[in-house]
Amino acid sequence: MNSTAFATAHPNIAFIKYWGNRDQALRIPSNSSLSMNLKELETQTRVSFDSTLKEDHLFLNESLESGTSLERVSILLERIRKMAGIDFFARVESENNFPTGTGIASSASAFAALSCAASSAAGLNLSERELSQLARTGSGSASRSIPGGFVEWQAGEDHGSSFAFSIADPDHWDLVDLIVLVSLEHKETGSSQGHQLAETSPLQKIRVEDANRRLEICRKALLERDFQQFAGIVEQDSTLMHSVMMTSNPPLYYWLPETLAVIRAVRSWRKDGLPVCFTIDAGPNVHVLCPAAEAGKVKGKLGALESVNSILECHPGGPAHLLDPEISGV
Ligand code: PMV
Q1: Is the dihedral of CA 250, 242, 131, 96 positive or negative?
Q2: Is residue 33 within 6 Å of ligand 1 at its C-beta?
Q3: What pLDDT score was predicted for residue 308?
Q4: What is the pLDDT of residues 56-94, one digit of tens each?
Q5: 143 lines ligand 1 (CB under 6 A)
Q6: What's the rounded Cα separation, in Å, for the pair 71 and 202?
Q7: Taking 60 as the threshold, does the pLDDT of residue 102 lie above it?
Q8: Segment 158-216, tens digit of pLDDT
Q9: Which of 68, 136, 173, 234 has its CA 20 to 30 A from that of 151?
């Protein structure tokens, strides 16, 4: 037996962040979160269940993987094999068109594309909600890369109630994420480990208790396309998460001096009337957000900063979906 499927998914940038789990194994998060898919970035993944294989094989950007990344993929495949009642191993080939491990959440698009392709190759016909639940068990933020556009992940309290859904289509608001790369080095502590440290910070409880307030303000600002409201809450939420990171035991410092230089510049431009704000994931790079009409101007200003290595421009993206396995790609 050899059954193949091919899928694509975008990574996403969280405006209200996910940090810390109430159930580590199932990745049930401590708080709900809100994000936008990033159209120009994508992971394409091909999965073939093959009765002649003796174990799962994972190729990431054409290189054969072992260790943790293969283990995480195998755990997800095992879940799918159980659901489908099959026991064949799989060959997984995955390609990103963007640098991995730099604060652009590659695990989000990776596990979203994998869930889509592997469940289809296994003969399952899952709903968007079921795919989001499945992707969540591989990487929490992957649950938000299944639906399209602007997406809310309701924390829930168990596997069935923790999933993501669209709150607005990609064309609702042409918001641009200018991803400012200040470093291409692989981060020291990945988010899976980081989530486990969240509870060691005395600030995590306060961050989580206040999360629904922030989410509601952010959702409203987004639905009303109110950039000023949006900017304030997005920056507060990001900095709260980094405060938890920096006060964990051991502490996690993702920011570099260049990160702070971009933060300071963005804040001063907003003070001068330019609609622009920042958010930062588990890495040193800065996601600079602004309405599309201002993107050219903001990009020009960012490019003039000494701390800026390069900039990726992303617009709101659609949902994860299957591709024709006959077309080229991985
Ligand atoms: O899905 P993970 O385990 O890679 O966690 C993502 C964590 C952040 O990117 C820092 C925040 C978020 O909500 O995406």
Answers
A1: negative
A2: yes
A3: 86
A4: 999 999 999 999 999 999 999 999 999 999 999 999 999
A5: no
A6: 32
A7: no
A8: 999 999 999 999 999 999 999 999 877 766 788 989 999 999 999 999 999 999 999 99
A9: 68
Domain ranges of the chain: 2-171, 172-314
pTM of the model: 0.96
DSSP run (H or E) holding 63: strand 63-65
Best CA proximity match to 118, nearest among 77, 66, 157: 77
Atom of ligand 1 nearest to the CA of 192: 3
Distance 53 CA to ligand 1 centre (A): 33
Type of residue at 164: A
CATH fit for domain 172-314, picks 3.30.70.890, 3.30.720.200, 3.40.50.970, 3.90.660.20? 3.30.70.890
| Average pLDDT, rounded, for the chain | 95
The residue whose CA has the least distance to atom 4 of ligand 1 is 191
Contact 189 CB / ligand 1 (< 6 Å): no
Q: Which of 17, 245, 279 to mutate to test the pocket of ligand 1 (most atoms within 8 A of CB)?
A: 17
State yes or no: pLDDT of 47 exceeds 80.
Answer: yes
92: phi then psi, degrees, rounded to nearest 5: -115, 125
